[in-house]
Beta-lactamase superfamily domain
Amino acid sequence: MIEITYLLNSGFLVRVGRTLLVFDDFKDPAGAVDAAVEAANFDHLYFFASHGHFDHFDAHICAYEAKTERYILSDDIRCTKALSSFDQAKLVFLKTYASWQDEHIAVESFDSTDIGTSFRVVLKDEGVTIFHAGDFNWWDWTGEPQEQRKLAENAFRKQMKKLKGLEADLAFFPVDGRLGPSIDKGAKVFCTETEVRALVTMHSVGYPAWQPPEGFFGAGRSIPVWSPRTPGEKACLKDGQFLAD
C-alpha cells in the first residue's frame, strides 16, 4: 500500500510502510509534512528536490533536519546559498544518470527537459518503485515557433529512449493545463513506452482535474490515475487502485 498526500504543484508526501518520501516541497499550505513529522510514526524520512526552481525547492525543508536521513537534491541546487543552513553531511547531490543508495532506498537520476533531474526510487524492504519526473515533460507550447516546438519534441524523445521499459509501481508526471491541446502529450508517450502501473498527475495548479480520454493508454491497457487539486488531498494506492481518503 502507498499513501500519498498532495502538497502543491509537484510536491507530494509519500508513505510506504514506515518510510516517508517528500518530493519537491516548496510550499505545503495544508501542513501535511509538519503533521507527519510531528506524528513520528515512521522510521525513515527522505526529502527530494528535482531542481532549484522556486516552485520545486525551498530551504524551509531544513526545519526537518533532525528527523531526516538525507536530502537528495539535483546537482543544480548545489550552488544555492540557502544550503549553508543545512547539515552538510545529510546532503546528497545527484547529477543526471547517477545513483545513490543506503540500507533502505536506492535512487537513480535521469535527465529533464527543463533543468535538474527526475528520480526513480526503490524502497528495498517493501519492494516498491516510485518515479518522480520533476519538470521532465514534452513541453509543446502552442504559439511558439515550429522550430522551437520541434526542439522540445526532440529533447523529450531523446530522454524517452533512456526511460523506455522503465518499471514503476507509481509515477508522478506533469499534465500541465497551460499547454492547452498538448496538455497530455508527454504523459501519453511516457505511459506507452514505460511499464508504470499507476499515474499521479502534477504541475497543473489552477486547472481542472485531468482524466485520460478513452483509449489513452493503448488497446487493452488501463492505468489508474489520480489528479489531485487541493493541498492536503490524500489518496491510497492499494491493489492497483486509488482509494480516496
Q: What stands out?
A: The mean pLDDT is 95. The longest helix spans residues 146-163. Residues 45 and 69 are 6 Å apart (CA to CA).
